[in-house]
Each structure stands twice: as C-alpha cells, then as structure tokens.
Specification:
CATH superfamily: P-loop containing nucleotide triphosphate hydrolases
Oligomer: single chain
Structural class: alpha/beta
Order of helices and strands: EHEHHHEHEHHEH
Main location: cytoplasm
Number of helices: 8
Binding site for substrate: 34, 58, 80, 143
GO biological process, one term: amino acid biosynthetic process
Helix content: 40-55%
Distance between the termini: 19 Å
CATH architecture: 3-Layer(aba) Sandwich
Mean pLDDT: 95
Bound molecules: shikimate-3-phosphate
GO cellular component, one term: cytosol
Pathway: Metabolic intermediate biosynthesis; chorismate biosynthesis; chorismate from D-erythrose 4-phosphate and phosphoenolpyruvate: step 5/7
Low-confidence stretches: none
Largest sheet: 5 strands, parallel
Strand order of the largest sheet: 2-3-1-4-5
Radius of gyration: 15 Å
Shape: globular
CATH class: Alpha Beta
Length: 176
Amino acid sequence: MRPTLVLCGPMGSGKSAVGRRAATALGVAIHDTDAMIEERAGRTIAEIFAADGEPAFREIERDVVVEALGTTAGVLALGGGAVLHPDTRRALAGYRADGGVVVFLDVSARQALLRIGTDQRRPMLHGDGESPRQRWNRIAAERRAVYEEVASHVVTTDRGTPAAVARRILALLPDA
Ligand code: S3P
C-alpha cells in the first residue's frame, strides 16, 4: 500500500487544507504526519519539543513518515521539516522511483505568515533572538533545495482557494 499523493512544503504552505480538498475530490483519506506523531506519542508537538527537544521529535517523525509511506493509502501531508531526515528523503526517493507523486507546495513568506497568524502551536517559529517572520524566512530558505530535491512537482499556493490549488494538483496525477 502506498499514498496516491504526498504533499511537502514549509509551514503555512497549505498542506493540510489543500490535502483535505484533494482527498475529498479523490474520494480517499487524508493522513497528516503531525497528527500521527501526536497520536503515537500521546502528546502535542509543542509538548514533545518542550520536553525532549527537536532531535527527539525528528526521530519520531522519521519513524512515522517512513512507515506511512509504506502503509497508508490516500493523501499524505508531511510536517514542514519531515524532509530533513535522510531516511525520509531515501524513502521519498523510493516512492517516486515507483511512480509516486510528491508535490512541493511553495508559498511566499507573506502568505504563509498570514495563514499561520498567531498560532502558537508551531515551536519552530518561536525562539530567542528572531521574530516568527525571521525564523520562517530562514527555515524556508534553508529547506528550499531539499523540497525541490524530493518533489516531482512544484505548485505555488499563494493564489486561489485550497480547492482550486487541489484541482491543479489532481491534474498532475498519472491517471487524472
Ligand atoms: C515543523 C512543521 C510543523 C510540525 C512541527 C515542525 C517544521 O508542521 O511538524 O511543528 O519544522 O517545519 P506543519 O508544516 O504542518 O506546520
């Protein structure tokens, strides 16, 4: 079993919102790795970061994402940093080699930050010395090459409703 479609991209790029619309249109389930991690850990992501730190979170995330790539059907939305782990990148390369579709949802800082708003549930955006905007920009710049490496397609989500973006993505699927 494998996903019909995998979505990656930075925080606020619309992975969950667009993924939900794409899944509904396809008549399949949506799986969100952030929710799967929280379920497995029995804690929120913010709690995992606060208690154990980012490296511990990335290990759980790696396990969840690699497993999900082999065991879930439907649309799989990855947490923004999931692509950082080399094991995850290897698993995504295998999925793509097998004909899988990985879409990088690209977004401007302006739009992403508007969507995220003042949501406090993203620990990566909060830390000493930098504003959430500065952190988002730095993280997005650091990861851009990795998103491009793992993706088979890039779709910009700045314009259009999540449903309209989902339609653009569905047109990329092999049997659309
Ligand atoms: C993270 C993104 C979050 C979540 C965690 C870390 C990141 O997911 O996995 O807070 O490092 O970019 P979303 O991209 O769904 O917000």
